[in-house]
Amino acid sequence: MGRSEKKLLHGTLDTLVLKTLSHGERHGYAIARWIEQETDEAILVEEGSLYPALYRLEKKDLLQSRWGVSELDRRAKFYALTDRGRQALDESTAEWLRFSDAVRSILAPGS
User: Fold this and answer.
1) Contact assessment for residue 62 and residue 80, using Cβ atoms and an 8 Å cutoff
2) CB-based contacts of 42: which residues, under 8 Å, 6+ apart?
3) pLDDT tens-digit map of 8-59
4) E strand or H helix that includes residue 31
5) Count of Cβ atoms closer than 10 Å to residue 41 Cβ
6) Which domains are present in the chain?
7) Which of 16, 20, 21, 39 is the residue whose CA sits 20 to 30 A from 78?
8) Within 13 Å of residue 108, how many CA atoms lie on the same side as its CB?
9) pTM of the full predicted structure?
10) In terms of pLDDT, which residue wins out, 29 or 2?
């Protein structure tokens, strides 16, 4: 699959970031790497997409952040879900599951 085919559908990145942070606090680079590893690199997260998403989610009070030190001993901003973020993740997950089931019903053999 080419890099252009790995682009995210609109709104997907926000949900993936929220899901990543449901496992605990992480800094931006760790968020991107987790998504890439969990999808066997089917989804590549570029900084130019990730950091605006983090800013947007924090502005909506779905994330909170704090400055800390990364595992490489570098200053990094760490993100965590807020209660609103957990609720938004639940709602978004349900919406995505309904959507993917609908698409699968059309694309499945015999349809």
Assistant:
1) no
2) 1, 6
3) 566 799 999 999 999 999 999 999 999 999 999 999 999 999 999 999 999 9
4) helix 28-38
5) 11
6) 3-107 (1.10.10.10)
7) 39
8) 8
9) 0.86
10) 29
Answer for the pair 78, 67: CB distance below 8 angstroms, yes or no: yes
Per the CB < 8 A criterion, the answer to whether 55 and 42 are in contact is no
Q: What is the distance between the alpha carbons of residues 58 and 82, in angstroms, rounded to a whole number? A: 9
The DSSP element (H or E) to which 71 belongs, if any, is none
Positions of E strands within the chain: 26-27, 63-69, 75-81
Residue 54 φ/ψ, nearest 5 degrees:
-60, -45
The two three-digit tokens of residue 84, written as one number:
């609103």
In sequence order, the 6+-apart residues with CB closer than 8 A to the CB of 60 are 84, 88
Structure tokens at 7: 């682009």
Q: Under 8 Å CB-to-CB from 80, ≥6 apart: which residues? A: 21, 24, 25, 63, 64, 65, 66
